[in-house]
Amino acid sequence: MIFVEKLIELIKEKKSVVCMGLDPRMDNDGQIPKYLIDNFNKPNEIITEFNKSLIDNAYDLIPIIKPQIAFYEKYDALTALKETINYAHKKDLLVILDSKRNDIGSTSEAYAHSNFKVYGADACTVNAYFGIDGVQPFLDYIDKGVFILVKTSNPSSREFQNLFTAEMRGIPDTQIETTAKEIKLERNYIYMARLVNKWGKNLTDFSGYHNLGVVVGATYPDELKRIREILKNSFILIPGYGAQGAQAKDIKYGFKSEGLGGIVNSSRSIMFAYHNKNYPPEKFGKAAREEIIDMNKKINKEIGI
Amino acid sequence: MIFVEKLIELIKEKKSVVCMGLDPRMDNDGQIPKYLIDNFNKPNEIITEFNKSLIDNAYDLIPIIKPQIAFYEKYDALTALKETINYAHKKDLLVILDSKRNDIGSTSEAYAHSNFKVYGADACTVNAYFGIDGVQPFLDYIDKGVFILVKTSNPSSREFQNLFTAEMRGIPDTQIETTAKEIKLERNYIYMARLVNKWGKNLTDFSGYHNLGVVVGATYPDELKRIREILKNSFILIPGYGAQGAQAKDIKYGFKSEGLGGIVNSSRSIMFAYHNKNYPPEKFGKAAREEIIDMNKKINKEIGI
Questions:
Q1: Res A277: pLDDT
Q2: On the CB side of A92, how many CA atoms lie within 13 Å of its CA?
Q3: How crowded is residue A217: how many other Cβ atoms within 10 Å of its Cβ?
Q4: Would strands B236-238 and B184-187 be described as parallel, antiparallel, or unpaired?
Q5: Strand A184-187's sheet: what is its strand order?
Q6: Which ranges of chain A have pLDDT less than 70?
Q7: Which residues of B touch A78 (CB under 8 A)?
Q8: Residue B157: which of A111, A130, A165 has the nearest Cβ?
Q9: Which of A32, A156, A237, A266 should one mutate to test binding to chain B, selecting the residue with the greatest count of B CBs within 10 A?
């Protein structure tokens, strides 16, 4: 089944646009509970056990999960990643692998294969600094979803992404310096959104959306609004809810009038909800479930589903 | 030992600036020889055997190797990656892991750990679309090297990297649209080089170079020249030699007068040299060695070492 088609079906069925991020952290207090680390010896086992419990508590409430591959690489636990994705599929959840891979075409082919065939994801995130060469191999998997980084949620995202790009309309490169007044100024992230719009032009739509989406941080609501206007047929993956500071009111501009067009990711606020809610570590699954129910309620009120 | 210090030592000792890319490909003719694929059952074993033979034939001629992690992920062969890096270290070679990782700070921390501690690389490549937040966790490993993507070797790199960035000198954001004439225009990749220059300002130098380098494709010699002028204390990793079309004369602008400041990567032209030289597959190591000797000769003539 086509990624975006299935995503829309699950959003409508579960009345939820929440994506549960699965970024296992074992280093500090308030992360994977110590009793799990003690009971299971190896990172692969600890993480698989933790993730399965979270999925058991969440699968009927949400359409999709998003494992961040960096943490599986950190703990040398890619087996846990594969088992998590496999388990999520059994529970009828979709999976975005957050890998942000990027390279020249022939290397991106290898990354697309690893993301979709080795790890088994339904979609992944891609950094498009290389241009279409590095993106096309992912789009060649026509049933899979691809989310291009446009405006990221971190504070220093402004350093490069917010630079003003001088768009040249029909002016040869050699005359640019002398014709500055004719230049239309836009920020880099807006130009990236426009590139995505161009790349998506010939993709097949399902209920008004195609498989090429973007990533825009919930921490930047004004930017989210601008990008929603540019990309009418793309889903927006919106990270940064919760631990990174964004709230339900910040994400509403990522959605279209029918309440579709966005998915809102939260990782730490769900996974480690037991800490904020002062539950004993053994109740981490229950705490995560309550946090998701709360997120669904707050977000659905804002987007009107 | 500090990455850049060791790199300079090995370049002088071996009189070579060649980096051997190790991007194992098993899909088509002219790649990893069929007899190896038949003799060794599993990708981890096939790739480890192939890489070790290449290292045996190359280690006395070059300072450094660069495995491209995408191919190890594609074949689910990260054990081969770790064994290759470990073996290269035994042969006194440095290792750049070509991973182009990128994310928000707390996630980049996990990537830096995996690149340097799990896989064991001495340096890695990083995509800096996120700004300094996503780069700093790599720089925090003060003995390791970091190479930021500036101008990549692929054809569509122009699509985003060559956009003109309108640099605002002391003009508030709100007045920008009305003061277009005061704007200084530069391309995105130049601005990225300037960011790298800024981030490198406080790093410790060894013989005039610090651990923060950049990646600039050999396929763009004019851009290489510009970037060399901006980044006086950075090593430039120059990919694209050979299979991607660049020759020895194209890379000379990446070097400073003493013949230092650059390393030239070739992957396919070395690994699969037996094919171009019409050697039997069993002679792939000998063919690779001859190709490296040829590269050293041609490049050293251009850069004057």
A1: 93
A2: 10
A3: 27
A4: unpaired
A5: A184-187, A164-167, B164-167, B184-187
A6: 28-30, 167-183
A7: 78
A8: A130
A9: A156
Q: Kindly tell me if the per-residue pLDDT of B170 is higher than 90.
A: no
Average model confidence (pLDDT) for chain A? 92
Which DSSP string do the residues of B201-258 spell out, in sequence order?
TTSPPBTTB-SEEEEE-TT-HHHHHHHHHH-TT--EEE--BSTTSB-HHHHGGGS-TT
In the numeric block, the tokens 């973007």 are attached to: A214
| DSSP one-letter code for B259 | S
Cβ(B127)–Cβ(A99) below 8 Å? no
Of B71, B154, B165, Cβ closest to residue A165 = B165
Structure tokens at B178: 């009305």
pLDDT exceeds cutoff 90 at B303: yes
3 state DSSP class of A177: helix
Does pTM surpass 0.90? yes
User: Do B160 and A128 lie within an 8 Å CB cutoff?
Assistant: yes
Q: Is A265 helix (H, G, I), strand (E, B) or coil?
A: strand
Q: What whole-number distance in Å separates Cα of residue A230 and Cα of residue A217?
A: 16
Task: ipTM value, please give it.
Answer: 0.95
Q: What are phi and psi of A260, to 5 degrees?
A: -105, 175
- Selected for mutation to probe chain A from B66, B68, B73 (highest A CB count within 10 Å) is B73
Q: How far is the C-alpha of B296 from the C-alpha of B17, rounded, in Å?
A: 7
Residue B241 clears pLDDT 80, i.e. is over it: yes
Q: Taking Cα atoms as reference points, which of A95, A100, A140, A101 lies closest to residue A121? A: A95
Say if residue B180's pLDDT is above 80: no
pLDDT for A178 equals: 52
Q: Which domains, ranges and CATH numbers included, belong to chain A?
A: 3-303 (3.20.20.70)
Q: Please answer whether residues A77 and A49 qualify as being in contact, where contact means their C-beta atoms are separated by less than 8 angstroms.
A: no
Which alpha helices (DSSP H) does chain B contain, by range?
A: 3-14, 34-39, 43-58, 69-74, 78-90, 105-113, 132-139, 158-161, 188-200, 221-230, 248-251, 268-271, 273-276, 284-303
Of A136, A37, A114, give the one whose Cα is nearest residue A69: A114
Q: Look at residue B61 in the predicted model and tell me its pLDDT.
A: 98
Distance from CA of A294 to the nearest CA of B (A): 25
Radius of gyration of chain A (CA): 20
A29: DSSP letter: T
pLDDT tens profile B76-111: 999 999 999 999 999 999 999 999 999 999 999 999
Q: Percent of chain B scored above 90 by pLDDT?
A: 83
SS3 state at A166: strand
Q: What is the mean pLDDT of residues B202-220?
A: 95
Helix or strand run (H / E) with residue B59:
none
State residue A156 phi and psi, 5-degree precision.
-80, 10
Instruction: Report the C-alpha gap between B302 and B22 in whole angstroms.
Output: 25
Judge whether residue B182 has pLDDT over 60: no
